[in-house]
Amino acid sequence: MAKITLRDLRHSYMENPAAPADYALKKLDVEWRDGGAYALLGPSGCGKTTLLNIISGLLIPSHGQVLFGERDVTKLPTEERNIAQVFQFPVVYDTMSVYDNLAFPLRNRGVPEAQVDKRVRTIAEMTDLTGMLKQRASGLTADGKQKISLGRGLVREDVNVIMFDEPLTVIDPHLKWLLRSKLKELHQRLGTTMIYVTHDQTEALTFADQVVVMKDGEVVQIGTPVELFERPHHTFVGHFIGSPGMNILPCAVKDGEVAVGQSRIEVDNAAALKGLSGTYELGVRPEFTRFANAGLPVSIAKVTETGRSRIVDTRFDGRSIKLLLEEGEQVPSESAFLAFDKKHSQVYGDGWLVE
Amino acid sequence: MTLELKDVSKRVGADMHIYPSSLRLDRGSFNILLGTTLAGKTTMMQLMAGIAKPSGGEIWFDGKNVTSTSVQKRNVSVVYQQFINYPNYNVYENIASPLRVLGKPEAEIKQRVGKFAELLRLTPMLGRKPSELSGGQQQRTALARALVKDADLVLLDEPLANLDFKLREELREELPRLFHDRDCIVVYATTEPSEALLFAGNTAAMHEGRITQFGPTGDIYRKPQDLITARVFSEPPMNVAQVTKTGGKFSMDGVINWAASASLSALADGVYTFGIRPHHVLPEKTSEGAVKVSGKVKVAELSGSESIIHFDMLGNPWVSLTHGIHPFRAGETAELYVDVARGFYFGSDNRLIER
After folding, report:
1. N or C: which end of chain A has fewer CB within 10 A?
2. Is B326 on the interface with A (CB under 8 A)?
3. Any A CB within 8 A of B304 CB
4. CA distance to partner chain B, nearest, from residue A127 (Å)
5. Considering chain A, what percentage of its residues have pLDDT values greater than 90?
């Protein structure tokens, strides 16, 4: 096991990259502690697979270094990095039993059979595969096979890191809940460094201690789930994390004072706005928006039921502002006023949090 | 316009894929088939479309028996989970293709393609080939093609399942709007309860080849008539446990007890299954009648805005889902409050006890 350091990492698939847009991965500096749970989160094409391939050794970056512990592994091939990988689609040897599938990575490295047996049984117990060890893998359902893939990824004790590339995408929602919590539980029990790549915010936030949010090859924020939720550094993070995402409204800043239309808005980063004037954006999550007796006048456009709560979509000056209502809370009939929680209201300029 | 299935069944070899099922869908309605993989949703759609022939029963459309009418002679559109477009046609020609098959005049084609491209925000991409589009744009193209010909029946088989989380959220919001002013019958298959709730309309809950319940989506969510439907329609899965009623009291293993509400006091003594959704099991007492329980925490997943606590409830795997951050360590004993007034009771036949 090892700490992982990514130092001044950049990558371009072009021969002679010049403009920032030529880079599939812009600049990344990060240090991941031994035994942590990390996630790379972003939409398709954001560069997370490029980054994953650099860490796993499928790709040599055009700039920068990858360190496992103090060792520079930037140019080492995958097999010399001592890592385990779990992919989106189950990789299973159909003709082998579940037991032999789990044992494969250990036998492959010449681990004595007694030790193989002990470890396979431990992992089978953790992944709920104990009852199926003798079965052939070919007869299992998709989620059964994915459990084998997970088990195979976890079976070696000496790996530097286990990497998961969208491992739950093909799994039914009901089982996804179970497998996701299983993975978290396994991380707590095994203490191996894990890196989880996904486009699904729920998976990233519930799994990781720290999440790297990426967009167009650029890291827009690295933070704990709470930091990403409560203080997005970029409107993209506000939008991408949270469902529905953060409300983003044009606002006028005049020497530090913030107004949306005629309404003055108190914001958390007011101190950073001193001396600034112009058009900016106000970001407030639906969770921190509520109906009030006075405030921003809006009309009610739509109410959507989610079971637990209702999403109320309101309009101000043609723009959508959403809020969440708990069971039992009333929706005003047609028009209403909105108030925002000051601590969670922030002003952004060119997409970035004004600090 | 109505689509009626009368005792329709489908047998493949010795396997019943669909048990005799009856369903009546009306003009202008949005209908959801909700169930896990292999519940029979896709087979049901193939029967509705005429792609598969029923082994028994009849299918009636607008008062006509169409059981043996081929799919080509029915006015049906289908969108699949995989993005299916003609790779060598550009977006315009892809959307136009059903109209060309119908031999529509060029002016009409141009007008209709333009309208649906606009509606699905594809206008700037009309000249591109599918391979030059993002996944979301490819699926929008497939949707536009399904909508352009004014089909009587539009079948959408998990159309958003292969899309990124945020794109899915976006298209979910757009979809109902696309059918707003249309006369057709829409059938939408999904594995996700949250998707059914967002679309509202009607839901047919499906399980292992049977429709377990059909009706307005909100009604089924609030009043699932049996345990299977309740489980199909809960995400995360519904917490269940056996309870014993003695006199005016319910008891879980003699350890956790609560008084039967007035509407249940007349219920015969005996053993019942109690079900409660995870968001009604909370770390804080928020309602008067909530019952305190405790259990060993298996894992706590903390996203930035909510906590998902997996714990052992007298041998049953239970989940608590709550807003805010409530850190629990694996292995510690959590005290939680079950809002029993929001629970469901099922008899030994697994039918919901009305109250």
Report:
1. C
2. no
3. yes
4. 14
5. 77
**Residues of B with Cβ-Cβ distance to A307 under 8 angstroms:** 193-194, 197, 221, 235, 277, 279
Lowest mean pLDDT among A90-99, B162-171, B192-201, B293-302: B162-171
Burial class (CB in 10 A: 0-12, 13-18, 19+), B104: middle
The sign one gets for the Cα dihedral B254, B255, B259, B264 is: negative
CA-CA distances (angstroms) from residue B257 to A241, B249, B299? Answer: 40, 7, 26
Question: What are A202-229's pLDDT values in tens digits?
Answer: 999 999 999 999 999 999 999 999 999 9
User: Smallest CA–CA separation between B275 and chain A, in Å?
Assistant: 16
Note whether A1 and A193 are within 8 A (CB). yes
In terms of Cβ atoms closer than 10 Å to its own Cβ (0-12, 13-18, 19+), residue A19 is exposed
List the single residue in A178, A200, A242 with the smallest CB-CB distance to B305. Answer: A242
| pTM score | 0.90
Of B137, B168, B305, which to mutate for an interface test with A (greatest number of A Cβ within 10 Å)?
B305
Contact yes or no for A273/A256 (Cβ under 8 A): yes
Beta bridge partners of A196: A39, A164
Contact A201 B165 (CB under 8 A): yes
Residue B128 has pLDDT above 90, yes or no: yes
Q: Which of residues 101-130 of B touch A (CB under 8 A)?
A: none
- pLDDT tops 70 at residue A1: no
Count of CB atoms situated within 10 Å of the CB of B351: 11
Comparing A328-332, B43-47, B245-249, which segment has the lowest mean pLDDT?
A328-332
Best of A288, A305, A306 to substitute, by most chain B Cβ atoms within 10 angstroms, is A305
Indicate the DSSP class of residue A268. Answer: T
Here the tokens at position A193 are: 């460094």
Q: For chain B, what's the residue count?
A: 355
Rounded-to-integer distance, Cα B307 and Cα B320, Å: 8
Structure confidence by residue, pLDDT tens digits, B331-349 = 999 999 999 999 999 999 9
| Closest partner CB to B192 (pick from A173, A242, A305) | A173
Contact state of A308 with B191 under an 8 Å Cβ cutoff? no
Residues B345 and B242: their CA atoms lie apart, in Å, by: 10
Distance from CA of A203 to the nearest CA of B (A): 9
Reduced to 3 states (helix: H, G, I; strand: E, B; else coil), residue A90 is coil
Residues 6+ apart with CB under 8 A from A233: A220, A221, A223, A352, A353
pLDDT tens, residue by residue, A63-98: 999 999 999 999 999 999 999 999 988 889 999 999
